[in-house]
Amino acid sequence: MTGALLVAGTSSDAGKSVLVAGLCRWLHRQGVAVAPFKAQNMSLNSAVTEGGEEIGRAQAMQAAAAGIAPEAAMNPVLLKPTTDRASQVIVMGHPSGGPLEAAAYQERAAALRPVVLEALASLRRRFAAVICEGAGGVAEINLRERDLANLGIARAAGLPVVLVSDIERGGVFAALFGSLALLDPEDQAHIRGFVINRFRGDPALLEPGVRELERRTGRPVLGVLPWVSGLEVDAEDSLALGRLPAPIPPVGRGEWLSVAVVRLPRLSNFTDVDPLAVEPGVHVRFTAAPAEVATADWQSCRAPRRPSPTWCGCTRTAWPMPSGSGRGQAARRSASAAATRCWAAA
Q1: Which of 39, 152, 174, 330 has the most Cβ atoms closer than 10 angstroms to its Cβ?
Q2: Which residues pair with 283 in a beta bridge?
Q3: CA–CA distance from 229 to each of 18, 148, 192, 319 (Å)?
Q4: What is the mean pLDDT of residues 23-28?
Q5: Residues 6+ away with beta carbon under 8 Å from 179
Q6: How far apart are CA 34 and CA 25, in angstroms?
Q7: Which residues fall within 8 angstroms of residue 73, CB to CB, at 6 or more apart?
Q8: How many CB atoms lie within 10 A of CB 198?
Q9: 124 near 27, Cβ under 8 Å?
């Protein structure tokens, strides 16, 4: 077995995926054979490997940063929500039965532990370093008994843990201290240090808080990562839905093209529209307002994971046909027709 590290967070969207990708890229540039790993991911945005296996997009991106091809072992368990309480379970890249309610999945988690541990062991046998990513918050004490993604895997595989928190959300010191405090002593022993992410301003202003956090916890703040404008990676968490880069003005005297993405529950691969958002002169927005859809030049009605007329907004709203002429007229007509079609029940 070779070296491995777990990057955990105080919450979802704390910056774990980008930090893991950065570590993979840095090690790759040092000539180290490195691979990413995430035991369990929950996301409707997925990638497909060359072997036809489905994994989280973050692990595919991290594999690219590491200079290697993505594979199922990098994300052995992928949960794709179908309702508020159920998910399809993807194991080693392939569907494993029908959707499971949350309680039923918790019962199955114990059976998946050997699969997860073997996937990690396989990577550690083949690579000099494996950088693991946790899921959600590290101190989800209501789920700790059957945890596969955070301290559960750290204790089973003997991994040191770096805990990262997003200062943009506010309360970063409370999040780091509180997360550590909620863990039992055996779990706490794996936390080796902290990282403060997305900081803007003078790092010297943080020093009193950093020193006090280190004094109270006996653990170092390993780094303060700055806010980086324009650092765009595929989002996996619904917290990032609709968080698009600022529109880029048209080239020369070109006109703006507005794109409205109909915001439905549980959209699959919603980041497919991200390339449009970085095109000059294209303004993309997610919306559930019929008026905004009607006035857009181009409309996109993305397929939800499990369409159903009982909740699908398209079935309850009479999306009006846009009018007008000039640029985007054909796109308006075809896209509006697609937007007015109701999704059939799965």
Answers
A1: 39
A2: 258
A3: 13, 33, 29, 36
A4: 98
A5: 10, 137, 138, 139, 163, 165
A6: 9
A7: 37, 92, 119, 120, 122, 123
A8: 20
A9: no
Question: Contact, 199 vs 224, CB < 8 A?
Answer: yes
Per residue in 199-213, pLDDT (tens digit) is 999 989 999 999 999
Cα(60)–Cα(47) distance, integer angstroms? 7
Question: What torsion, rounded to 10 degrees, do the Cα atoms 136, 139, 142, 145 define?
Answer: 100
Name the one residue in this structure whose structure tokens are 């997305």.
Answer: 198
d(CA 234, CA 223): 24
> Rg (Cα) of the chain, in Å, rounded?
22
3-state secondary structure of 340: helix
> How much is the pTM?
0.77
Rounded Cα gap, residues 59 and 76, in angstroms: 11
What letter represents residue 243's amino acid? Answer: R
Q: Which residue has the tokens 């570590």?
A: 23
170-196 pLDDT, tens digit per residue, is 999 999 999 999 999 999 999 999 999
Residue in 207, 204, 225, 223 with CA at minimum distance from that of residue 215: 207
Q: What is the arithmetic mean of pLDDT over 311-325?
A: 44
Euclidean distance between the first and final Cα of the chain, in Å? 45
